[in-house]
């Protein structure tokens, strides 16, 4: 479908599970060379499936990010597209949110996304190449949600970085956009239902039913729903789009 993505080098952080894994599969299906980066992967950069490489990466560690980007560039090639899907969340009302919870969310979701995008942008600028940066934010980057103070703050920060980098990199032909997923069925969402339900006096099943009831389209999302938008933003069809936060929420968020 997106022939221009064939043979492009794509880095996906958080690529071992959830939304990130869905995005890895989508780009591989389009013929891209994909590097999946995740904290759960073995050390070092290694070939995996056809056209896929894996690298262990803690996105919140600046030195580790730079080392990983250097290794990818040397072994695979200059990164044309980066999708920052690595993320974490903690549950807790604002009055009960700890400094550790705050730091964890901001370090991974906000700083981690920024460090990876900054590193890719620097290398594109040095090479005089255009490229695509796609942040994974959340509808929590546009709304407030009870019991998710630190997570919501981190995802709002991602949208701020998106807009600023878009302005700064536009003269160089590098587009910067964000995807704001809604309720997507992933292992992290399942954990959030258990933990979030516990602080609200609800079961995970009751939270899941509440989730579905809030979506105008009548269902929660899949990782493929998000991956399709990532492909679009990386393609030539989105060449005149930058600084945007695209909702993939089934209608829950409409701004």
From TrEMBL:
Q: Name one GO molecular function term.
A: oxidoreductase activity
Keyword Nucleotide-binding carried by entry? no
Signal peptide segment: none
Instruction: Spell out the InterPro entries in the cross-references.
Output: NAD(P)-bd_dom_sf (IPR036291), Sc_DH/Rdtase_CS (IPR020904), SDR_fam (IPR002347)
| Annotated keywords | Oxidoreductase
Origin: domain of life: Bacteria
PANTHER family per UniProt: DEHYDROGENASES, SHORT CHAIN (PTHR24321), SHORT-CHAIN DEHYDROGENASE_REDUCTASE FAMILY, PUTATIVE (AFU_ORTHOLOGUE AFUA_5G14340)-RELATED (PTHR24321:SF12)
Q: Which family does it belong to?
A: Belongs to the short-chain dehydrogenases/reductases (SDR) family.
> What is the official name of this protein in its record?
3-ketoacyl-ACP reductase
Record organism = Microbacterium aerolatum
